[in-house]
Amino acid sequence: MQSFERNLPEMNCFSLEVKDIAFHVPPIKWNGDISGHIGINDVFFFVLSGECYMKIEDDCFIVKSGQIAYLPKGKMRAYTRVTENFVMYEIAFDIKADGKELFPLIGLDKGDYAVDAENPDAVKALFEGASRYEFNRSGFFDIAASAKCFEIISEYIRLRLLSEGKKQPFSEVIGYMKKHIGETICLDELSEVAFMQKNYFVKKFREAYMTPPMEYFARLKIYEAMKYLSGGNMRVDETAKAVGISDSAYFSRFFKKHTGLTPADYRKLFK
Question: Which of 114, 137, 163 is where one domain is finished?
Answer without folding.
Answer: 163
